[in-house]
Amino acid sequence: MPRNIIKIEINNELDAVLAYKHAMQLSENLGVAMVGQTKFATAVSEICRNVVEHVGCGHVDLNVTEEAGTHYLEAVVTDRGRGIANAERLVQDGAGSFHSRGNGLANSRKLVDFFDIESSPEKGTTVTLRLRLPRNAPVVTKSVADKWAQHFDYEASVSPYAEIKKQNIKLLELLEQLRLRNLETEQQLQEIRRLNKQLHMSNHEISQLLEEREKKNLLLQKINKDLDSFAHTVSHDLRGPLQNINGLALTLEACIEASHLEEAQQMFPMLRQQTHKMDRLITSILAYSLAGHSSIPKKIIDIHTLLHLVITSLSVPANFLIEVNPNMPVLYTQEVYLYQVFSNIIGNAIKYHDAPKQALVEISYTLLDDFIEFTIKDNGPGIPQEVQGNIFDMYDTGASFARTDSTGLGLSIVKKIILEKGGRVWVTSAGRGSTFTFTWPAAELVPENQL
Asked: How far is CA 181 from the centre of its chain?
């Protein structure tokens, strides 16, 4: 009989990340080697993401079970969706595009020792994943299982993921309160119209009640907008390092198959660099959400050094020249803001350039009265005049240079950050080449005598 350790509700992308983390921790506690930990946790998170993308909600149970004398770490991912047609064929063939549901199931099957799927329109879908435990794995008694469960519960109480979930729960409670309050308000208004003379309710009281309702509605709209923006930011900023990790993993696999072990060893520092980058992004974005816009800590940032970090984190083709003004300023500001702005604009210049062997990107700045004006100029294909006013809108990449690997969110994130800082961002392009310009508060400039 399976011994359940922890159950995680799956409602969004962060829950899939949390499932990955706990799968890693639990397999480590059971003595599984690092490779096995990573494979099992990756399979679990892949199925959880399928639930988020295709159903919207579900749950995953992490258990320790035994079958025919063999002990397993087991994950059972369940949803109440409409089921998957031809589920077995999808698992076997991985039919569909790289990011399709079929490939997710097929890839997860390759990572575990046991895979089973049950799916029907009436009961939804249940996927069971198992990882064989080593012979020296500790015996999981009820007390041990309870101790691990308490540890995970404690971690959840101090984890930023749990804080995000708590915020979501509070928002749902607020939605329900507003719904009930709206119903109550409508009932009161009807009662006022019917018993106006008898109740002698003043117009002033009615106005106050309506004003309160309007404030609540405006607050709800703002909260929903902030939540939507946060979700898009997370998925957009994590895509880059995830794609890099996937590319390095494919290269590493090819090196191992060809017995090029020395070349394979060179991949590990780059893998660690990308995972560290992803960790920094998650930490920064969660701090952005939990602490509030005005509470993000500032620190002294050398823009020249920051640009070096941004450029080295991007996939810059050979002979692609990026020139940075050597006398860039030093600011006392939020690093995560400027990192995202430069990363998105420079990344687009690289991504959309049609002649990378002759490519040139020039980065400079001009000090104005109240603002610092940064410019990123490229000699790429340019941006048509008719779409220049829309490229900073969410999902608008411009029909002339849209790509399947573009989320359409990068420049909208840039615009949101610049507006948060009280600045402006715009693009100029006539024929070949584009110049992106944005302003930053000059009040954050660090004088040379204070460096």
From this structure: 34
Quick count: other Cβ atoms within 10 Å of Cβ 366? 11
Quickly state the pLDDT bin for 87 (edges 50, 70, 90). confident
Contact between 32 and 113 (Cβ < 8 Å)? no
Please give the pLDDT value at position 416.
Answer: 84
Which residues lie below 8 Å from residue 154, measured CB to CB, with a gap of 6+? Answer: none
Residue type, 247: G
pTM reported for the whole predicted model: 0.42
Backbone CA torsion sign across 86, 90, 96, 97: positive
